[in-house]
Design brief:
Shape: globular
Distance between the termini: 65 Å
Order of helices and strands: HHHHHHHHHEHEHHEHEHEHHEHEEE
Strand order of the largest sheet: 3-2-4-5-1-6-7-8-9
CATH topology of the largest domain: Rossmann fold
Radius of gyration: 25 Å
CATH superfamily of the largest domain: P-loop containing nucleotide triphosphate hydrolases
Number of domains: 2
CATH class of the largest domain: Alpha Beta
Helix content: 40-55%
Strand content: 5-15%
Largest sheet: 9 strands, mixed
Length: about 450
């Protein structure tokens, strides 16, 4: 029998009844699939795995999930493996198996997570019931029928979590302290998705756009909302992440033109003059980038439900998005249309925020200011168009502000109009280069 984690601590170790290929699939889900871990991470044990390398990887994945409520990225996983090797948890002779298991998991495509979670839950429930039946025999002999009933009842409840765990605030202070210590020591990288500007990242609570959060950029007509969304999507993709850009107003061809100008550092009017140079620069950037997919829908046709369907379809193809950009929320459609425009708007933004939470992704979108906000030097929360619920629902609202003089100087102001998790009410002055479609070229100062 091959080595497995913590075997020595048990007299008898239960192993999965699944074949080697399916166990490798489960390892992949443990490392990459947050939905899978939320459902069965609490019952997934490294002892179940026949392969020692996969057992160690699952041990790391479950420990990390229980501590940080997420899955480790590749850089963090490499650091954790080095720590386990240095501390002797992973023995030198086992390391080749761990490396081989990691390569399998890295190359595997995430598909069928729900089915995999269901099979794990069935296995664990079966084992729990078998043990409960054996443990109940002495109780039956003593006619402790209520205890038998309770034992079987608890065993039947073992398996997938279909609802959110209850979190004991006081008992988990040590865990929170460990997380803070790891952040302070640099062991846990920021969870935020970079804006492409280190200065702006430092001003955001998560060190970038927050996962499981909805960020709304607010501005008047032609204020640069689309250019901003394009730039932030591009920055995340160039940082190696998977990004979905959904456009409801501007065609995918125009979005791509603007991206070409920005990535190739070429004026959009000069793209046709430098075809080969632009192509070479885009290909060079793409070789190091993550993924940036563009989906185009007619204005007023996309609902949150339809967006979910697209995301699920992409996951079935092995693509799990880190950032979802919707250009933009005001021109989406509600899942169920009513005669009340405010209720329709609320439904859309609630749906977008729910998607951010469900997908552990950063969701960015935009909204219009009202007429008063369009005329104001600084657009504030109360200047949102039509429905103030958008401000209440969003985790972060940043308004885009520009005067004629600032436009002439290629400058713009970002005003933190509302925030759920950090201080707001301050302004970030930025430099732009709109000829090359660069929304944020540099941060000039914070006021």
């Amino acid at each position: 029998m091959t080595e497995a984690v913590a075997v020595a601590e048990k007299e008898e170790v239960v192993k999965f009844e699944f074949d080697a290929e399916f166990q490798s699939k489960l390892t992949t889900h443990a490392l990459k699939d947050l939905d899978f871990m939320r459902q069965v991470g609490h019952v997934l044990k490294p002892d179940y795995f026949e392969n020692a390398g996969e057992a160690h990887l699952v041990a790391i994945a479950t420990d990390f999930f229980n501590k940080y409520n997420t899955t480790p990225d590749s850089a963090t996983l490499m650091n954790l493996l080095k720590e386990k090797k240095a501390s002797g948890v992973i023995r030198p002779e086992t390391m080749p198996e761990v490396v081989a298991a990691y390569k399998r998991a890295r190359d595997n495509i995430i598909t069928g997570g729900a089915y995999a979670a269901e099979k794990v839950a069935e296995f664990v429930r079966h084992q729990a019931l078998a043990k409960a039946i054996l443990d109940s025999i002495p109780m039956l002999e003593k006619k402790r029928y209520n205890d038998v009933e309770e034992l079987i009842k608890k065993a039947n409840q073992v398996g997938m979590l279909m609802t959110t765990d209850v979190y004991n605030y006081f008992e988990n202070i040590k865990q929170r302290s460990e997380v803070r210590h790891d952040k302070a020591m640099g062991k846990l990288p920021p969870t935020g998705i970079s804006t492409g500007s280190l200065q702006l990242d430092k001003l955001l609570y998560h060190g970038g756009w927050g996962r499981r959060e909805l960020t709304v950029l607010m501005g008047g007509a032609k204020a640069g909302k689309t250019t901003a969304l394009i730039n932030f999507a591009q920055a995340a993709a160039l940082a190696g992440l998977k990004v979905l850009y959904v456009t409801l107003e501007v065609s995918k061809e125009i979005i791509s033109e603007r991206l070409d100008a920005c990535v190739a550092d070429t004026a959009i009017t000069d793209l046709i003059k430098h075809i080969k140079e632009v192509e070479a620069r885009i290909e060079a950037a793409g070789a190091k980038a993550g993924l940036l997919n563009i989906a185009e829908y007619p204005t007023g046709s996309l609902t949150p439900k339809a967006l979910r369907h697209l995301i699920e379809k992409e996951k079935a193809n092995g693509i799990k998005y880190d950032m979802i950009v919707v250009d933009y929320g005001d021109i989406m459609a509600p899942d169920y249309r009513t005669n009340d425009p405010i209720e329709n708007s609320k439904s859309i933004f609630v749906g977008l925020r729910a998607i951010a939470f469900e997908e552990n992704a950063a969701v960015l979108t935009a909204t219009q200011t009202n007429r008063e906000g369009f005329k104001s030097v600084v657009a504030k929360a109360e200047h949102v168009a039509e429905d103030f619920n958008k401000i209440r629902i969003a985790d972060l609202v940043i308004s885009l502000n520009i005067t004629d003089e600032e436009r002439d100087n290629n400058e713009l102001r970002l005003y933190f109009a509302a925030s759920r998790n950090q201080a707001g009410g301050f302004t970030v002055r930025i430099k732009q280069d709109l000829a090359k479609m660069k929304f944020l070229q540099a941060v000039l100062g914070v006021e």
